Please model this.
Amino acid sequence: MSIPSFRRKPSMKSLDVKALKLLMRNGRATWAELGQLLGLSAPSAADRVRKLEQRGVIRGYAALVDPASVGHPLTAYVSVSLASHRNRAKFLRAISKMDQVAECHHVAGDDDYLLKVRCRGTQDLDHLLATQLKDKLGVARTRTTIVLSTAKESVRVPIDATD
Model:
């Protein structure tokens, strides 16, 4: 019997960790602010961040928009079971184009995927479930949990230095 191998955590230097933590808190930090935190010049801080971007550690930058302010106050989590696993590629292509779907996770357990969706209201959610998922994509079953309020929501990732 073989023992499963686990991917080793990539090496992360403490300066990179500090840079990432600042950028997760304030993605608009200047190179001068970042350099000051790291004890580097602004150009050296910028170079360090560019290397993190090239390695794929930093995947991009975005504004964090309040969904209710732009007309999508309803958040729901939808567990999805596909009718056939042959529909997987079609399902994933369609989901990637749906603006209402904020996140799509392939999950273990009774369901195939877990979606985080943002909708205008319950009618919008009903249309998404009945028409877009079940009718058009061959989804066999969904289970939906509507969010009443949010105590914490973050884009931050826990990271630690390994050097």
